[in-house]
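name: query_chain
kind: protein
chains: 1
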Amino acid sequence: MTSGIDPAANARTIVRAIDEAGAGAAAMLFTPEMAGMLDRDRARGGPKIVPEADSPVLAAAREGAASAGLWVALGSLAVARTDGRWANRSFVIDNTGEIAARYDKIHMFDVSLASGESWRESAAYAAGEAPTVVDGTPVGRLGLTVCYDIRFPALFEELGRQRCDLIAIPAAFTVPTGKAHWHVLQRARAIEASAYVVAAAQVGEHEDGRRTYGHSLVVDPWGEVLLDMGGEAPGLAFAEIDLARVLEVRAQLPSLANKRAIPRS
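structure:
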């Protein structure tokens, strides 16, 4: 996606993608981080951040999923919490439109880059507290993460320990960090967890003035890139998830089974 500052317009884009994915016989659709709105101007965007029960984007995605009979991993939405702060929250919606799981991004993107870009996610967003794993999806046991989470191996170690078949890493990566680290980090996390990775990404020039790296990826448990959507334009693409491949890789290279605790000094 190239999400903009209007949640209604972004909701229409998501619903179109759900319809197209369903028409293409997909079992599950993955969207990027902040699929509902991407606006770095918090004064302008803040009034549009509402509790999840009032979110028009979430409601549209649920209705679209039910209509298409399709599961949706809604990468994340900004939602208002009861304590006055916001959450960067992922949703998994089943093929009847019910919310099967939620995950609040644990690691806040607080960085100052050499390019001059500065981001302080923790200034407005509250961090999540625990990993989330979802059973019964069309892609098997699904682990949820969001964007900057990818830089913290302990989270992925836990998702591997819980034997996830696939890990979602929706993102809105900056261009400098994407060029340097995106592909290698995605492949590393797939290899470490012996699991598929689906990384739906924001791409291109956004209404709020930012640029995102794109390159939505699907990586298999051996670290092979099965799909790379490039860094130029939004769109929809399809990939096959073979759950037998997860078992094959774990039997061939049983790093999860061989892992030992490292004592701390």
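note: The longest strand covers residues 71-80.
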